[in-house]
Automatic annotation (TrEMBL):
Residues 1-20 form the signal peptide. This is Uncharacterized protein. The keyword Cell membrane does not apply. Keywords: Signal. The keyword Signal applies. It comes from the Eukaryota. InterPro entries: Ferritin-like_SF, Rds1.
Length: 310
């Protein structure tokens, strides 16, 4: 049962995300009274509904007017098909394990036009990749792990499609970025309105919120600034820890003018996660050191210098 519950979490939490604009701080008091952090999650059904909502709200002509080619709208039909197939597969797999699939939560994904829809979709897919990678160590069933890996490959293709459409570097990092289920759970709570009482409780806890200020698109070695949620106390000495691909890098943080600031290390590239931590990470992010996060930022990479002699 523990295996089934963890795989439910790992697959069900692949959708939560922030926009490609600064994420507003989470406010737990805004969650509906019948909702608590132990039952708050975004399911694969929700991300399918998100995709279908965008496709039903915007026409091919809307995408063309927003500057996207007609072929991109055609690609979205296949993305929606993939997500629908993932939902069916996951529901059948969980049912086969004797687990009742969770019911969809009510959520609020704040997109207002075609471009913000595509921006949110891009980050959703990136979060999906990170959730699958972070959840993989929790899976003991090799058959299910292989199937999840196959879905992960599709999520990566989707992410590249959206990133390319937004003129972002599709392969901005040499590897996907794994984050743990508690971090995914923390991101999910920013968008949840309520969840059915009948959903099983998850054994995860949301971290205090962390949000970028001044936009979420950065260059390497630029100053990044963040704010935390209300009621959070950060000690005078803290670190800003960046998680990007294989790299987990901490730098001493500075608190000034109400912002927690630090320069982005040169190794950080593409869609990346940021935490405030008590101590510097040394190759591994230890959960007990996390003070707040994750925030999501996009770091525009520099053109690589290729060594053709390898």
């Amino acid at each position: 049962m523990k295996f089934a519950l963890l795989t439910t979490v790992f697959t069900a939490l692949c959708a939560p995300s922030i926009l490609a604009v600064p994420l507003e701080a989470r406010n737990t008091t805004s969650i509906a009274p019948n909702t608590n952090r132990s039952t708050t999650r975004v399911t694969d059904v929700d991300v399918l509904q998100f995709a279908l909502t965008g496709l039903s709200r915007f026409t091919r002509a809307d995408f063309i007017r927003a500057g996207f080619p007609a072929s991109f709208f055609n690609q979205l039909q296949f993305v929606a098909r993939d997500e629908a197939s993932h939902v069916v597969f996951l529901q059948r797999a969980l049912t086969g394990l004797g687990v009742r699939p969770v019911s969809a939560c009510r959520y609020n994904f704040p997109f207002t036009d075609v471009r913000s829809f595509v921006g949110l979709a891009s980050v959703l897919e990136g979060i999906g990749v990170s959730a699958y990678l972070g959840g993989a160590p929790l899976i003991s069933n090799k058959g299910f792990l292989g199937a999840a890996g196959a879905i992960l490959a599709a999520e990566g293709v989707h992410q590249s499609l959206f990133r390319n459409s937004l003129n972002l570097i599709a392969s901005a990092n040499i590897a996907g970025t794994a984050i743990n289920p508690n971090a995914i759970f923390s991101l999910a709570s920013a968008f949840i309105v309520s969840c059915p009482r009948g959903n099983p409780a998850l054994p995860f806890t949301a971290f205090p919120s962390l949000s970028p200020r001044g936009g979420s698109l950065f260059g390497v070695n630029t100053l990044s600034r963040f704010v935390i949620g209300r009621g959070i106390v950060i000690p005078p000495v803290f670190f800003i820890t960046f998680v990007s691909g294989f790299d987990i890098i901490s730098i001493p943080g500075v608190f000034s003018g109400g912002f927690y600031s630090g320069r982005i290390p040169r190794q950080i590239s593409g869609q990346s996660f940021v935490f405030l931590t008590r101590t510097a990470a040394r190759g591994t992010l230890v959960e007990s050191t996390i003070l707040a996060g994750p925030a999501i930022i996009e770091v525009n990479p520099t053109i690589p210098n290729l060594n053709l002699l390898i």
